[in-house]
Design goal:
The protein is of the alpha/beta class. It has twelve helices and 15 strands.
Amino acid sequence: MTVLASAVKPAICGGDPLVTLPPPSWPVVGEADVDRVANVARSGKWSWIGPQEMAFCREYAEFIGSTYCLGLMNGTVTLQCALQAVGVVPGDEVIIPSLTWVATAQAAMDIGADVVFVDIDPETLCIDPEAIRAAITPRTRAIIPVHLYGCMCDMDAVIAIAREHDLKVVEDVAHQHGSAWRGRCAGAIGDVGSFSFQQSKILTCGEGGALTCSDEDMYRTIFALKQVGWAPDPETPFAPGEPPRLVPGNRYCHNYRMNEFQAAVLRGGLGRLNAQNEQREDAAEFLTERLAAMGGPLRVVARDPRVTRQAYYALTLFFDPEKAEGLHRNRYMSALTAEGCPVVHTYAAVYKSPLMNLQDRTSPIPFRDPSRHQDYAALDLPNVSRAVDHTAVTLPHQHLLGSRDYLERLLGAIGRCNDHLAEIREHFEAGLVEPGVGR
């Protein structure tokens, strides 16, 4: 179906919305998922290295291509345990991109490390390798490349820099379960991969997380850190999918365990993940080609040819202000939203996030020597500021699971707004838009 709507008044200016089909629902739940959870409830085995957790960890390690996988309670504590496992201690510096979810920074800060925020690639929104290189000091211990929205980091450059400076790489793969760089899955490229299974993620159990690695010592350390101090017996051979014999791990540890209900739901989602990722890739390719042919201020960000498989937490889009006839990105997005095209903004720059007041008494920052860390309050990194305020747009992943008719209507909405840029701008300037819509 081809949607011809350019002659129709935009919805933001009083026309009828173009996208009237219901969006794809998320998460996807099948009867087999319900049965598996019910069986867990009946079993009475709800936690402490149960059969569902062991089965999921074996299956997910195979999916990622790592030797080990460990289930944890969420994707924040995964980062914390990963950093501790690679040797980060209080006073060390950890380099992270300035555009990511706040947990990437909090995990490092909460174990006593100092976060060094660096700028991003203006196209992919992922960490800029040259900014990493410029930020390295004698206190730098680790890098956290975040594979963000619909793009992977330049892992060739990140790994080369890490090896040159003897640094550890903790991949934040919360957005990209199944992406691959030169045939290797994200989460199996660096020293350890950190995954989130929160409600919005493409593999979800509501809350949950996992760590993947191939180093035995790291595996045993992480196991102890999350399993209240118990670790696999080093004298007992590792058997994937089998509960290990446990001995005291001689670590200062926590209770960050995954439970059997989480693992049961994840196994169902993992069984659907490859097909869903393929459908999202097909939809992304379709939208990329059609938006390129359409022209206008909105396009899909170019895919790095070294990315051999791309999983999408969201489709990363670039808004070009020079092609928008004076219409600000936020107002353009409001016009698309009025049409029923559900585009959303990115995260805020972490150091400016309203969800994480780094100067509050609940933060570790006011209690540290200010000469020891960046002046976060004064920090301003140009690429992230421009992306967050002017150029970056995302389309959440569930919409890539829509029918071709649904995708055509999204394109029709974009085309309609592109054909009425001046009219939409004038509508805003005349104050004819309801309060709270756009800026």
